[in-house]
Write a structure and sequence with these properties.
The strands form 4 sheets. Strands 4, 6, 7, 8, 15, 16, 17, 18 and 19 form a 9-stranded mixed sheet that branches. A 6-stranded mixed sheet has the order 10-2-1-14-21-20, with helices on both faces. It has 10 helices and 21 strands. With 423 residues, it is an alpha/beta fold. Helix 1 runs parallel beside helix 7.
Length: 423
Amino acid sequence: MPDKALPSGASIAVIGAGIVGVASAYALARQGYEVVVYDPSPPGEAGPSRANAGHVGASDIHPLSTPGIHWKAMKMLMNPDGPLKIPVRGAIAQIPWFWRFWRTSQRKRFEVATSALSYLCSHTLTDTGAMLESASMTDMLLHAGCAFLYDTEQSFTASKRIWADKNARGFDNEEMDAGRIVQDIPIIADTFRYGVLSHKWSMVRDPLDVVRGLVEAAESNGVIFQRIRVNSLCGGLDSVTLETNEGKSQHAAAIVAAGVNSVTFAKSCGDFLPMAAERGYNLTVPAPGMELELPLVFADRGIVATHLTSGLRIGGWAEYAHPNRPANQNYFKSIARISAELFPGLNLDNANYWMGNRPSLPDSVPVISQSPHVPGVFYNCGHGHYGLTHAATSARILAELISNKSEDERYRQYSITRFSNMR
């Protein structure tokens, strides 16, 4: 926790204008702070906030590194259409991150990560709804649930333990038989016989529209958005100085919410942030020729689908590679082929293809904390797949930490110091 509360009216910089940074700025402005957001790109345009699936996945309480993940990963890597991709070039550089990732799958660490994610998830729907309501954007959030579909009876049976655990923690769900799947999702291929409907799940009409709407609400609360690149930051006695491409800027505090670029700022503060770029691929079809009533997760394929205002969006996967590596064009071709298989009759004309870097931490738990080395620096980053899902809750927690209005010990599980023994 901060040694002392930052007084209302103090100037705070937010580095990063994705959904997490914008939500943070909005929450801080509503607490009475003077907020300036720095990003060289328009809000929501540069990272995953631009074209993610639009899911608010409140029931995803388990880290990606599950027990036995090393065997599952090997099988996925051997499958050309598998959800895990690791380019050979640069793979050696990824070994330290994957070592930490594997350690999360160990029973005690897995439970710690699950507990941290469960706390966030238990507040996700309420906090997201409250944030959008306060911004006059209630109509952007739809409570549709989400259908998880399995290719085989074997994988469906193996998933039952996970769903039972979710039920026990208050994230209710129900099984879907073949008849229910055909009735509720008639547009998908008729090969799916096993599924689960998660009730703790929502979606937004379009994720980029959510960011833009929050920007308008934030600006009406006095937030200033600067199209300026921050190159580094350093802490002083009672302030933080940002070195930008237009000179220096001083604030009482700075929030690092810069996606995969957060690593650079953490290093400048002497903090260790083991973040990897988990790159996702998708396509959006503006006129698919079909309607999808609820979000879908094709669990064995790492593919999700959502019908947004911009069209039917299908994609997913996880490619661990350098964030500046060009998108693999073959993956776009594969996504298109798989989409046609999943949705017979899909019109792929004028499909828009996208790839983005998701900021992934080895335990799948975001960092929402103060820097142990530079007191005026705070972090709100590393949300991986779940930036939209946890943006409102992590912004609320961050605002409480900065204003020192909460002594909730559970917030310590999001501290960046948890990685100290992983160097």
